[in-house]
Design brief:
elongated; alpha/beta; seven-stranded mixed β-sheet; four-stranded parallel β-sheet; about 20% strand; about 375 residues
Length: about 375
């Protein structure tokens, strides 16, 4: 543990220590000269030299110390390498507080909620709302705690909000699994997208298959199609289908760059520096059906061949609309798993801890010294006549 000065220039305020010295020197002799007639004829004698003497030195010392602490406070002293071995117990919201009391076998431990900000557990307060991003919070808590602090994490048997990677922490964690109701999860099916088509004259024969897909997704909706000279409209749920041999307009490229879903014709030119990745092949023939085009402006999809059953037999497959929707709307990654299978690993990098500033203690000492200085300055003995 070592002392640091976060703002060393603040020590320049130590020059203010001269003020109490000058004040005490100026006020040490408060005598009024009175001339007596009987002493008028006496010859003046040289006065003996007097040494510098400070009156009321306890008050002077308190004032000097008060100014010195103010200068030190401006310099912002801090301690690095602070050893904090207080055990921490982090509890995921959703664990029953009554059952939690039975696990409190360490009176020195600091109990925290595994929630943003890591609030201290107070049995009179309600637990934070669920669900929580468990994996991210576990990694964040490991990064913020001192390396010497033991960590216990109490979680229910079923976790909701975990990512695909097991957490790798800088310390060994006591992973405590307790019986708790599984988080209520609702699976909301994704609504099929709305197709909007802009095409040229050569792609007019392909519209029948696009209409069939639209009919499978939205039986009561008509297909929004038009010439490739018309602009696209619609919201984020819209899939823009470009069936034209012309290059992609700039507004379509910007749409794809902002995360919009764009599907282009096989005749649409591909930039020379683009990366092409096959993402869908025919299960029966192995022929490529759909590829992903990645450029510096974004990503978009492109048919590998014309929408013609002779070239793409999968168009006549009854499952073609559902398979196409799966590629346009990927299934989200599962986020629920058994807690016993997610024990964090060790071996992660240790995070440097910030230095602990001493400002709160200095402020308290300055306040006490100020009260002492006021008491000494206004003491009754100072008001008594000499």
């Amino acid at each position: 543990m070592s002392l640091l000065w976060l703002f060393p220039a603040g020590l320049a305020a130590l020059v203010a220590l001269l003020l109490p010295l000058l004040i005490h020197l100026a006020r040490r002799d408060q005598q009024q000269r009175i001339d007596f007639a009987a002493l008028h004829w006496l010859s003046a004698q040289p006065r003996p030299r007097r040494r510098i003497r400070f009156d009321e030195w306890p008050l002077l010392l308190v004032r000097l110390l008060l100014l010195a602490l103010l200068a030190v406070l401006l310099a912002r002293p801090a301690l690095s390498g602070w050893v904090d071995a207080t055990p921490r117990v982090a509890v995921l919201p959703g664990v029953d507080v009554t059952a939690l009391r039975n696990h409190k076998n360490n009176d020195r431990a600091q109990w925290l909620w595994l929630a943003p900000g890591f609030p201290v557990i107070n049995e009179r307060d309600n637990a934070p709302a669920t669900p929580q991003p468990v994996a991210s919070l576990v990694r964040e808590l490991d990064a913020t705690l001192p390396a010497q602090a033991p960590l216990t994490i109490v979680v229910p048997a079923v976790l909701d909000g975990w990512d695909a990677e097991r957490a790798q922490l800088s310390r060994r964690v006591h992973w405590q699994v307790v019986d708790a109701p599984a988080p209520a999860g609702t699976v909301t099916p994704a609504n099929p997208p709305v197709v909007q088509v802009r095409h040229d004259a050569d792609a007019a024969s392909s519209l029948r298959y696009v209409r069939a897909v639209q009919q499978a997704w939205h039986p009561q909706a008509a297909l929004d199609s038009g010439s490739d000279t018309l602009p696209f409209t619609g919201n984020d749920r819209t899939v823009r289908l470009w069936l034209s041999s012309k290059p992609l307009p700039s507004e379509l490229t910007a749409w794809a760059g902002n995360g919009g879903r764009l599907l282009a014709d096989a005749r649409t030119p591909v930039p020379a520096d683009a990366q092409r990745q096959p993402i869908w092949r025919d299960d029966a023939t192995g022929a490529l059906l759909l590829e992903r085009i990645s450029t510096g402006d974004g990503q978009w999809l492109r048919w590998a061949s014309a929408l013609d059953p002779a070239l793409m037999p999968a168009l006549l497959d009854p499952t073609f609309p559902s398979q196409l929707q799966r590629h346009l709307q990927p299934v989200p990654t599962p986020r629920r798993a058994l807690a016993e299978n997610l024990h964090p690993d060790t071996g992660g990098a240790a995070y440097p801890q910030p230095a602990r500033e001493l400002a709160p203690w200095l402020v308290l000492a300055i306040a006490l010294l100020f009260l002492l200085e006021r008491w000494l300055a206004s003491a009754p003995r100072r008001r008594r006549p000499a």
